[in-house]
Automatic annotation (TrEMBL):
<dbReference type="InterPro" id="IPR008927">
    <property type="entry name" value="6-PGluconate_DH-like_C_sf"/>
</dbReference>
<dbReference type="InterPro" id="IPR013328">
    <property type="entry name" value="6PGD_dom2"/>
</dbReference>
<feature type="region of interest" description="Disordered">
    <location>
        <begin position="266"/>
        <end position="291"/>
    </location>
</feature>
<protein>
    <recommendedName>
        <fullName>Phosphogluconate dehydrogenase NAD-binding putative C-terminal domain-containing protein</fullName>
    </recommendedName>
</protein>
<feature type="domain" description="Phosphogluconate dehydrogenase NAD-binding putative C-terminal">
    <location>
        <begin position="218"/>
        <end position="261"/>
    </location>
</feature>
<dbReference type="Pfam" id="PF09130">
    <property type="entry name" value="DUF1932"/>
</dbReference>
<dbReference type="InterPro" id="IPR036291">
    <property type="entry name" value="NAD(P)-bd_dom_sf"/>
</dbReference>
<feature type="compositionally biased region" description="Basic and acidic residues">
    <location>
        <begin position="281"/>
        <end position="291"/>
    </location>
</feature>
<dbReference type="InterPro" id="IPR015814">
    <property type="entry name" value="Pgluconate_DH_NAD-bd_C"/>
</dbReference>
């Protein structure tokens, strides 16, 4: 990517994840930069502890071969805009939880200065050595994919997987993981909030501990589809109970619509693809999609 003997990497920004990744990238062959304009004292401390050198945005853009963007999703495009405005023409590793369309927009914007984009997603906690469960990094894109995979693979705390040359594959995986993980957290919160005052939370926790994540076993979705016909009404009752308890019912109502869409599989066999297509065709689900 550069003929320079020292590779310069920008960390945008050194939050908990960014600074932890920076520690894994430390090497005598690398220089790590950041821009701390407007950043908190805590961020400044993390940057110092991780050995990241603070510079102006203009200097960062001019000298960095690679920029790693790990920020709040709402700030991702602004970070790219700021880099372009400062003249950055290197490789941006876009590792934020944003839609594939937004990654494509960032790539198009960055191309105006000659910059390239790697689509990335990060799963798990910030890397800390040693840890039995490594932080997982998924990468996709047509430019420098293997080089960036090798860069992260130097650390034993990072597990790297490449997903091909199409930008958007890593970001779509991240969004799918977000709904599986974050929506499950929201549902768990609602379930425990519903029964906490009745002293039933420990029993719910005990039962939930017996379940593997459904997302880890997609081969069981046809069986789910065969039984879904009876779950819509059940979840509408859940929604009514949540509403009566002054808790938001929308997640339960949306889940009821998902199972209603699969009710046609009551007396028939389905495969995974049939199940997914039924969800896409359902008028009830479409009302939620286009609301």
């Amino acid at each position: 990517m550069s003929g320079s003997s020292v590779q310069t990497i920008a960390i945008l920004h050194p939050g908990a994840m960014g600074s932890a990744l920076a520690r894994q990238l430390q090497s005598p062959r690398r220089r790590l930069l950041c821009c701390l304009d407007g950043r908190s004292d805590e961020t400044r401390h993390r940057a110092h502890e991780a050995g990241i050198v603070p510079v102006s945005l203009e200097k960062l853009a001019a000298e960095s071969h690679i920029a790693l963007s790990v920020v709040a999703p709402t700030a991702a495009y602004q970070i790219a805009e700021d880099l372009v405005a400062a003249g950055f023409s290197g490789l941006l590793i876009e590792a934020n939880a944003i839609r594939p369309q937004r990654v494509h927009a960032i790539a198009e914007h960055l191309s105006t200065t000659g910059g390239k984009v790697i689509d990335a997603c990060i799963m798990g906690l910030p890397p800390v050595s040693p840890r039995s469960d490594p932080t997982r990094i998924y990468l996709a894109g047509p430019d420098h994919l293997e080089e960036i995979a090798a860069l992260f693979s130097e650390s034993p705390t990072l597990q790297v997987t490449t997903l091909g040359t199409d930008i958007g594959r890593a970001s779509k995986l991240k969004l799918a993981h977000s709904i599986v993980q974050k929506a499950a957290q929201a549902l768990a919160l609602l379930g425990h909030a519903l029964v906490e005052k009745d002293g039933l939370s420990p029993y719910l926790a005990s039962e939930a501990g017996k379940w593997p994540s459904p997302a880890s076993r997609p081969e069981r979705f046809p069986s789910v589809a065969n039984r879904a016909w009876r779950w819509g009404d059940e979840l509408r009752d859940v929604a009514d109970e949540l509403r009566q308890a002054d808790l938001p019912p929308e997640l339960a109502e949306a889940a009821a619509s998902v199972f209603d869409a699969l009710s046609g599989f009551k007396d028939s066999q389905s495969d995974g693809e049939d199940t997914y297509q039924a969800l896409r065709r359902s008028p009830d689900v479409q009302r939620h999609v286009h609301r």
